[in-house]
Design a protein that fits this description.
It is a single chain. By secondary structure, this protein is α+β, with helices and mostly antiparallel strands. The chain folds into 3 domains: 135 residues, Gyrase A, domain 2, CATH 3.30.1360; 86 residues, Aminomethyltransferase beta-barrel domains (Alpha-Beta Plaits), CATH 3.30.70.1400; 74 residues, Elongation Factor Tu (Ef-tu), domain 3 (Beta Barrel). The protein has 8 helices and 19 strands. Helix 2 crosses helix 7.
Length: 362
């Protein structure tokens, strides 16, 4: 299995490791619940170096990414980022990703660890006559995510970047713990926070500096277990669970990233047709009324008939209730619609609720 450059730091911190798409990654350190609550109430530090980084540059970089994705990348200036997707001709997901505008002819695509090679191959296969250079920078890039209400106070003393000038989905280059980094105000937890990218050969210096600076604030190292529950509370999609090559961008309730008026892109005609004809299903959030936890693949029933499966589900440590996501027939997507979730041999009552389940106070 692959290991990130922070592996020894994780061992020192007492991490419990799991295999995650070919990577040996921390699942938890002090416990999933304690790490989850630390992020919601104070701060947590995640190693997300398993994510992929692909740089596209050249005279046709913008035109090429516009063709590959449904969101309007032309809206970005250097220093900005956006949530986006790589789509199939059917309007479904190759992956979801962040696009960073490094310059007007240079962009960074941050993709999911499970899909890095697939995404890279997809991009290469669709290069056509576009005048671009495609660089898979994943192996030389390390990434940390510092998330939570105390993230600003912890990181500011360690960097020469004025973090208060960094608005959500903006980034700057600067030093963190003396090392060259790109720092963005982004994350996958629903909290305020920062993601730190570096090509430094020994990025553990940054990890150690943040952990030391964060001690007075109750900062904890956090693993994939807490990260998954945090993103579910914030209704952030997980590729392979909530979105994949069988789910369209519109069905995934992500119409806001589809800009039909920007021009042609892969999947445009399929998505336009689906919008005109009307959705037959859409992803929704639900919470359990009865006791139990709705896990992935558990059956979902509407009016006594199985109509779907849970795509993501868990007990929310912060909200103290069982929550989940599922694709439902359009007629079953109204708020307060009653459902049942098959949990072992029983059916537990549930209802459709507004999402995100958790929204941080400003």
């Amino acid at each position: 299995m692959k290991r990130t450059r922070f592996y020894e730091a994780h061992r020192r911190a007492g991490a419990k490791f799991i295999e995650f798409f070919g990577w040996e990654m921390p699942l938890e350190y002090s416990g999933i619940v304690s790490e989850h609550l630390a992020v919601r109430e104070r701060a947590g530090l995640f190693d997300v170096s398993h994510m992929g980084e692909i740089i596209i540059s050249g005279p046709d970089a913008l035109a090429f990414i516009q063709y590959l994705t449904p969101n309007d990348v032309s809206r970005l200036s250097p220093g900005q980022a956006q949530y986006n997707a790589l789509t199939t001709p059917q309007g479904t997901f190759i992956d979801d990703l962040l696009v960073y505008c490094l310059d007007f002819n240079k962009y960074l695509l941050v993709v999911n660890a499970a899909n890095t090679q697939k995404d890279y191959n997809w991009i290469l296969d669709h290069k056509g006559s576009f005048d671009v250079i495609i660089d898979n920078a994943s192996d030389r890039t390390s990434q940390l995510a510092l998330q939570g209400p105390k993230a600003f106070e912890i990181l500011q003393p360690l960097t020469d970047i004025s973090l208060d000038e960094l608005r959500p989905f903006w980034w700057q280059r600067g030093k963190v713990a003396g090392l060259d980094c790109l720092v963005s105000r982004t994350g996958y937890t629903g909290e305020d926070g920062f993601e730190i990218y570096t090509e430094a050969p020994d990025p553990v210096i940054i990890w150690d500096a943040i952990m030391e600076e964060g001690k007075p604030y109750g900062l904890l190292p956090a693993g994939l277990g807490a990260r998954d529950n945090l993103r579910l509370e914030a209704k952030m999609m997980l590729y392979g669970n909530d979105i994949d090559e069988t789910t369209t961008v519109l069905e995934a309730d992500l119409k806001w990233i589809v800009k039909f008026n920007k021009g042609d892109f892969i999947g445009r005609e399929a998505l336009l047709k689906q919008q005109e004809e009307g959705l037959q299903r859409k992803i929704v959030g639900f919470e359990l009324i009865d006791k139990g936890i709705a896990r992935r693949h558990y059956p979902v029933y509407y009016r006594g008939k199985k109509v779907s499966e849970v795509t993501s589900g868990s007990y929310s440590p912060f909200l103290k209730k069982s929550i989940g996501l599922a694709y439902l027939p359009i007629e079953a997507t109204e708020i307060n619609t009653e459902l049942e979730i098959g949990i072992r041999e029983k059916k537990a009552k549930a209802k459709v609720v507004a999402t995100p389940f958790y929204r941080r106070s400003k």
